[in-house]
Amino acid sequence: MSSTAETIQPQTPAMAESNLSLWLRQLRAIVALDLKKNFFGKRSLLVYLLALMPIALLTLVVLVNPLGGGHSDRLPTIFSVFYNSVILRTIVFFGCAWIFMNLFRGEIVDRSLHYYFLSSVRREILVTGKYLSGLLTSAILFTIVTVVCMLLVFFPNYFSSSMRFFFEGAGLGQMFWYVTITILACIGYGAFFLVVGLFVRNPIIPALVLYGWEWINFLLPPLLKKISVIHYLNSLVPVPISEGPFAVVAEPTRAWIAIPGLLIVTALVLVLAGTRIRRMEVRYGSD
Amino acid sequence: MSAASDNTIIFDNVSKFYGEILGVNRVTLEIRSGITSLVGPNGAGKTTLMNLMCGLLRPTRGTVSVLGIPTDQPQLLFRKLGYCSQFDSFPRGLTGRELIVAFLKISGFTGKQANELAEKSLARVDLLAAADRKIGAYSKGMRQRVRLAQSIAHDPSVLILDEPLNGLDPMVRAETIALFKQLAADGLHLIISSHILHEVDMMSDRVVLLNNGYVVAEGGIQGVREEMDVEHPAQVLIRCDRPSFLASQIFQNADVVEARVHDDRKGLFVKIRNQDQFYLSLNKVVSEGEIEVESIAPVDDDLSAVYDYLIGAQ
């Protein structure tokens, strides 16, 4: 151990620099550290398994029995149903739940949250950085899942018609909207689960409550439908699907309202998270 | 904010409750630069006090400020403060160097600055050789040192160390204490909690004794001891050839409360109230030449004795 009188010169972040450039540098540092954990930490294994499930499922189905029963024109509807029920409502939902809840809850379980709290950084920046890392992780993973699944539905058994659909028809446009919906789902669900992870010691219960709420959305009256993420996402689906004979029909929300609306609600939820984290204490014993 | 408060850590009537459980109660303290040790049994409130200083806990009542900065402003506070906590846990998968660099960057340092500062702090705790190994493979002593390196990397003015000597071998303990003394000599505020009283005694400028969430005494160890003279008279051991004779002589002094011959019959324990008066009368006895005094040593003016008197008996 060196106990010499060597002095470490203070090199605190320059006070003169703008807050914005300091905050951006801090955001980059938080995102970089958390991306490493999100992609390579032991908790990422579950997300990878979840992401592989629809791909494995479709691969098996495609190998056993061609989708659409020889009618390639049915494929857009088949994918829309698969996307809505499997990818969006299950994989993206639970994947976001796991990723975003663990951003803070995981640190508490690992007893490492205090390292962030003992850094010279505004806690609101910390929330934003962690949220962005979760968003990048989930968006990258589930966008890949969405694209791969779409290609698996269309190409293996109907290659030439699918080429025409994608490059001469509506295929690429539909893919763009599915990817957009996936990213918006990550944005919306991510903010919700981040806040849940901050407020609730056992986040599984609120996650299941939201899951149930999202699933019964088709039965809800139009006003209540709007208090959900899935309603806005469904409004953007390029190939609308029937929700069954008991569904309460409601006018889809237009994209120019649905997208900014979702972003505004997400921003409000993040403000709530920022308020919460400013008052948060580190007491691992009671967590 | 006064100039004095800009250079001190101030607890103003601070209480912290965990639900109905008391953490600390009505603590009013001013901590100046130098080494201040927090001493007390488990559950006395040492870690609570430290966590309140760092803003990891919020006071239920009262206010805490560190060099004039409220503890709810981490972006300002942790430019001045470093905390080496007792939590023996780390973000997963990082090397010692990565840990320090990552959190320096989060604090706003550029990559170049962070690398330089990490290198210096790792050198200071003698951990450069293991800097690029995963922390998961570190020994307990190395983990303790990497936490210490992380807490001093940004060159803070206030360093809070919760049981910093735990897990260190004797050689490294001595070196760490030397490092603390050096940092204190450089003008830092060091606040240290420790169970090892003789080490606290050795390095502290002042102590804060805590018990059951209350500050029971604070100040320099000698000062605290002197304040206890009435209830616990000072005790000295006089090594001499005729302890019984000495006892009979000094009992004529009204300041002697108790005298007891040592088990080996070569010394006398004496409890005294007014030490100055006692030593004058002892000089007189010795100068008469009837006894030969080998040595005189206080036996209860150290932190262990103060601790025993104030806390140990409770």
What can you see in these coordinates?
The complex is a heterodimer of chains A (about 290) and B (about 325). Chain A is mainly α and about 290 residues long. Chain A has one domain. Helix content of chain A is about 70%, strand content about 0%. Chain A has 11 helices and no strands. Chain A is globular. The two termini of chain A are about 35 Å apart. Helix content of chain B is about 35%, strand content about 25%. Chain B contains 11 helices and 14 strands. Chain B has helices at about 45-55, 75-80, 95-105, 110-125, 140-150, 170-185, 195-205, 220-225, 245-250, 275-285, 305-310; strands at about 10-20, 20-30, 35-40, 60-65, 70, 80-85, 160, 190-195, 205-210, 215-220, 235-240, 255-260, 265-270, 295-300. In chain B, the strands form 3 sheets. A 6-stranded mixed beta sheet of chain B has the order 6-7-8-3-9-10, with helices on both faces. Chain B has a 4-stranded antiparallel beta sheet with strand order 2-1-4-5, with helices on one face. Chain B has a 4-stranded antiparallel beta sheet with strand order 12-13-11-14, covered by helices on one side. In chain B, strand 7 (about 160), helix 6 (about 170-185) and strand 8 (about 190-195) form a beta-alpha-beta unit. At the A-B interface, helix 1 and helix 4 of A face helix 2, helix 3, helix 4, helix 5 and helix 6 of B.
